[in-house]
Amino acid sequence: MKTSTLMLGIAAIVGAAVGVGAWVANTRQESKAPQQVERAESAPDYQRAVYSPLHFKPAIENATDAQCLACHKEILDSRPRETSPAGIRTQDSKAWYQQLTTYTGEQESFHRRHLTTAFAKQVMDLKCNFCHQGHDPRDEAPGTSATTAPQSDQGFTLRKQVNPETTCLKCHGQMPWENMALPGPWTESKEAFQNNCLICHANIRTIRHQVNYLKPEAIETVGKENGDSCYGCHGGRSWYRISYPYPRHAWPDMPTETPDWAKGRSTESESRFVIPSATAKK
Ligand code: HEC
Ligand code: HEC
Ligand code: HEC
Ligand code: HEC
Ligand code: HEC
């Protein structure tokens, strides 16, 4: 009597186990097939992807954002935590570079602040390859072997995937107030000028921003409404102690004498960004 119930019990367990096993095998089979197809079509193996020609010159120069995002979608998807591990709410902690009146919205990643947030889209038109000009996946340094990018390659620098001097510094340098003969840094002198750069810049250095990664007309519009829009890219979010050596485009009524600080300055924007008809426009 006892043995028969035991046998029944075992049979039930075995039956159940076989059933579950078969069910698991089935579902695995079901989900496996389509996944395999998808992978084979869209994802190359990891090593091949790391050495994708799109990571190197010359292909990276003409790469579209869509081509990069096919593999790096997370660049635009990932968001900062809402609360730090120590319990500080992201919304309650604004850094010094988030104090300008143009700063809006939730905390966002670096990439999103340059590519997808409202102010970024209003005044800029940055592409992946504005910053990313290639990198060496082996040791992130140009010129370390015969087959890597040569040291003359200015696209990236030692241990960095981009070259800050030719990218970030353009919009995150100090405000060169000495060159403008202002009485002091903008934080001290802005009240005297009603926080309005256009008091002077309606007539001085008026040929500006004619490059494909900025939106020149939109910049002038927001600059009229709010001096912080201009200041933000010209000292208000400065990561550097130096300022970018801006090209000095000739403007109508430009004084004939060149000030000392401006000697040797280019009179054209960096060639890879120039809008072809720029100098003809006003
Ligand atoms: C075929 C897929 C693929 C494409 C297309 C692709 N990448 Fe990558 N990329 C990868 C993989 C894989 C890595 C290595 C990631 C790792 O090791 O963490 C990588 C690494 C990188 C890295 C270095 C990341 C790090 O943490 O070291 C950067 C920057 C990068 N890619 C930018 C780009 C840009 C810009 C483009 C477009 C011009 C692009 N990639 C196109 C797959 C791709
Ligand atoms: C404003 C300049 C800039 C733009 C525009 C930009 N990146 Fe980056 N990106 C960076 C910097 C700086 C880093 C960090 C580099 C380092 O660690 O040396 C980075 C890092 C990365 C990495 C490594 C992973 C990570 O999150 O750190 C990938 C992948 C990447 N970028 C892809 C892209 C893609 C794809 C685009 C276009 C959709 C893009 N980037 C646009 C500047 C930029
Ligand atoms: C063409 C101009 C431009 C370039 C080039 C540029 N930035 Fe920015 N950056 C901006 C603007 C504009 C904002 C403010 C965006 C906003 O308030 O929404 C910003 C904001 C930032 C922030 C603050 C993000 C936050 O969460 O508040 C960081 C960090 C930053 N930039 C770093 C960099 C670095 C590093 C580079 C070079 C790889 C770079 N930027 C290149 C214009 C630029
Ligand atoms: C009192 C007048 C005045 C005000 C106010 C003023 N500027 Fe200037 N700015 C000048 C003069 C003058 C120059 C130099 C012109 C030349 O090239 O000879 C100059 C040059 C510049 C340059 C080029 C610097 C270089 O090194 O090539 C930038 C960028 C600039 N101003 C941005 C701004 C911004 C942004 C503001 C407001 C936050 C502002 N300026 C406010 C008078 C002014
Ligand atoms: C999104 C960032 C951004 C904003 C906003 C911005 N600038 Fe600029 N500005 C730049 C960059 C980048 C350059 C250099 C472009 C180049 O290489 O030609 C520049 C160049 C200049 C120059 C040098 C002009 C020349 O001779 O080529 C002046 C002056 C200037 N900006 C003034 C202003 C004023 C005034 C405003 C507001 C109305 C303003 N900027 C807003 C990024 C910005």
Mean pLDDT: 85
What is the overall number of helices? Answer: 13
Enumerate the distinct ligands.
heme C
Report, as a whole number of angstroms, the end-to-end distance: 102 Å
* Strand proportion: under 5%
Q: Helix content range of the residues, please?
A: 25-40%
Give the total of domains: 2
Outline the low-pLDDT stretches.
1-38
How would the global form be characterised? globular
**Largest β-sheet summary:** none
Q: Cα-atom Rg, whole angstroms?
A: 28 Å
Give the ordered list of helices and strands: HHHHHHHHHHHHH
Structural class: mainly alpha
Number of strands: 0
Task: Name some characteristics of this structure.
globular; 282 residues; disordered N terminus; binds heme C; 13 helices; mainly alpha
Characterize the structure shown.
The protein is mainly α and 282 residues long. The chain folds into two domains: 49-79 and 89-162, no CATH class; 170-280, no CATH class. 38% of the residues lie in helices and 0% in strands. The radius of gyration is 28 Å and the shape is globular. Residues 1-38 have low confidence and may be disordered. The structure holds heme C (5 copies). One heme C (HEC) is lined by residues 176, 179-182, 186, 193, 197, 199-201, 204-205, 227, 230-231, 234, 246, 248, 259, 262.
